[in-house]
Amino acid sequence: MTGKLIVFEGLDSSGKATQTQLLLKRLKKHNIPAETIDFPQYHHWSAVFVEKYLNNEFGHVDPYKASLFYALDRYAAAKKLNEWLEQDKIIIANRYTPANQAYQGGKIKDAEKRKQFLAWLDNMEHNILSLPRPTLVIYLHVPLEISQKLLETRRPKEYIKVGNKDLHEKDINLLRSTKEVYDTLAQDQNWRTIECAADNMLSKEQINEKVWEEVRKIVYSISLFSLIRLLPVKSSQSFTSFLCLIAYRTFAYHFPVLPNPLLPRAVAVNSSNTNCARATLLIITCATRSPFRTINGSWP
Length: 300
What we know:
2 domains; five-stranded parallel beta sheet; globular; Rossmann fold; alpha/beta
């Protein structure tokens, strides 16, 4: 499975929905198959508890219970997500599991208890519910003050029954704690942080350029296993084809406006060719100063 799950995270009104659509448009332009999904899935049966919770219909709900509402909404989409990944598609998610960590973790002030909660949450979502882990998390960092100003001018969300803010958006102290958790997670978990504002917000086009710089590293990354699958069957042609494929990938990484072609698939390559492949990757890495990465960012 070589599909990738790219997640946009950030405070409300940080531009996640906008960047999701801009990235989708960019990937389509490059002939890269992609799908988008928004979490929570408002107006879908799986989000009914989320909607009631955000409209304060349950009263106080502790983070362990509240996180279940969001996790089960994602679980309802797990089959679709895995199918897209099996089809080698790029999935762009407007929020995902990290949002649960930030918003519900932000309710817990004690550092040790928050750490225990985050460990429990990770196990629940990714082990018990078997939700796929993100390949890349892009954190759209916006100062809280700017986020609040943008929130005031936002159109009311359809799921909100009274006013134009939900339970989370009304609680400035929660939002402040949420941002602190987001900032910590971004550093600890090696997310890609995009600075979206200084005194004022950058334009959506400027932000998208920053986003693309991070995404194209993932889109054009090389997994040794996936490359081997692309080699022709005849072993006598394997190494030559492998070099040609790497040459194309190198060119595509630096000039990503080129379309991503359909390449022939293969069955196997012997161990000597695998060693040659490692050496070739190392040579090209030194020559281009652009390290090739596997799906999880490690050396193949």
